Amino acid sequence: MYLVLLGPPGAGKGTQAKMIEQEFGISQISTGDIIRESIRQQTEWGKKANEYVKEGKLVPDEVVIGIIQEQLSQEKFQAGFMLDGFPRTLQQAEALASMLDNMGKRLDGVLYFEVNEEEVIQRLSARRICENCQATYNLLSKPPKEDQICDACGGKLIQRADDRPEVIRQRLKTYKEQTAPLVKWYEDRGLLYRLKSEGSIAEVYQQVKKVLNEIQEKNG
Ligand SMILES: [Zn+2]
């Protein structure tokens, strides 16, 4: 199965991806990770990517596609893949479609994890980090034993600037705006599956499983 995962920060995509990986044997490809990995391995496309990275430039689409293609020959991707962090734009979606086409494959589905904004803001803005040892806490789901104090080292717990409600709200808004054309493009092609990222991890996963079973049936 060839899948794309879409969803804003805080949608719990990463957790769901791990569960899919375990049950369905499909490996996740996080584009940031594979770009770094191919640079480290000095693959043909990794070397090209490095020319941009070392100058602080964005790695262009054709190079990212080259890297994805290079990685796909690996044994662990024989059952398919889940792409996370790519595509982000229509041009990238088109590039991905033609890459798969050239390989005689096609995308099976796009899982779009939709979030309840207020819920995400509440959850993410409850995060705290120890300014001393960097241990992470969440006032809602993983509070420290003593208010504002790190269990591990007694350091002071602080909120990262990124976790402030107004910053999270802006990030969600930006994500939605940037992703809208992509969502529509996949929807027009009958590939989009909307998932409500609400409730427990297990509840969200039940929706995921239903979609993946549906796709498997379609594929025969
Ligand atoms: Zn600490």
Q: Name the helix and strand elements from N-terminus to C-terminus, one letter apiece.
A: EHEHHHEHEHEEEHEH
* CATH architectural group of the largest domain: 3-Layer(aba) Sandwich
Task: Give me the Rg, rounded.
Answer: 19 Å
Identify the overall geometry: globular
Approximate strand percentage: 15-25%
Q: If helices are DSSP runs of H or I spanning 4 or more residues, what is the number of helices?
A: 8
**Strand order of the biggest β-sheet:** 2-3-1-4-8
- Whole-number mean pLDDT: 91
- Helical residue percent? 40-55%
Q: What low-confidence regions span 5 or more consecutive residues with pLDDT below 50?
A: none
Report on this model:
By secondary structure, this protein is an alpha/beta fold. The protein folds into two domains: 169 residues, P-loop containing nucleotide triphosphate hydrolases (Rossmann fold, 3-Layer(aba) Sandwich); 38 residues, no CATH class. Helices cover 49% and strands 15% of the residues. The chain has eight helices and eight strands. α1 crosses α8. The chain starts with a strand and ends with a helix. The structure holds zinc ion (ZN). The site of zinc ion has 8 residues, from loops.
